[in-house]
Amino acid sequence: MRLSWGNKIKQKKTRKNKKIIVIQVTKEEVFRMNKLKLFWGMVITLAFMLVLAGCSGDSTNSSSTAGRSNVSRDTVYEFYDKVKLNQTKEQVDAELGVTPTESSQLKNSFTYVNEDTSFGVSVLFDENGLATSKTLFYSMTEDLAFLTTKTVTKEQAESIPNGATYDEVKNILGGEGTETSATQIPFEDNKVSYIRVWVNQDGTMLQAVFLTDGTTNNVMYFN
Fold this sequence. Notes:
The protein is α+β, with helices and mostly antiparallel strands. The protein has a single domain (28-57, 65-222), classed as Nuclear Transport Factor 2, Chain: A. The protein contains five helices and twelve strands. Strands 4-5-6-7-9-10-11-12-8 form a nine-stranded antiparallel sheet, with helices on both faces. A hairpin with a 6-residue loop joins β5 and β6 (120-125). The longest helix has 29 residues, at 27-55. The chain starts with a strand and ends with a strand.
């Protein structure tokens, strides 16, 4: 198989009547794919920065959900679900009713935390002051484990092919994932891509990035 520039697929016969398929793609398509990879690298980096920020807080904070039976999905997503992409910062501030902390590492990124639950949301605003990305905020990875119904493994992560849909991933893993990020992709007409995770009780987890077409091209397992 050869890769060359263009926008058509050609076929030619060899002496043994076998066909060689030459896949040709445009420079624009390659540029778009490279931009998408770069953008999602930034989004994943942001997600890790936010998680690390939460974990670096007071380790004696008793509000961590580990071992608590009164925590529900509604508790986890209270702030996250209230934030809608394209809202202004003023609207987000009014909706959540707490004073956010501005990131010192990422411009126009603000984290809102419910001090009673330690869950919250980090919101990234564009140059027009509109929310373009939101990421679930939590203190410890284990805090999300109760949302995963079956233990997931590294072998399962490696078995998920590029281009798999969310339904296909759920079938492989045996249950729903936990949405931890939603981001508008500017060069995809602001369609939304998502990050979902499956977290084990010991804090190990599988993370999948779903593109704007609903398929995944990035699955990672973290010990």
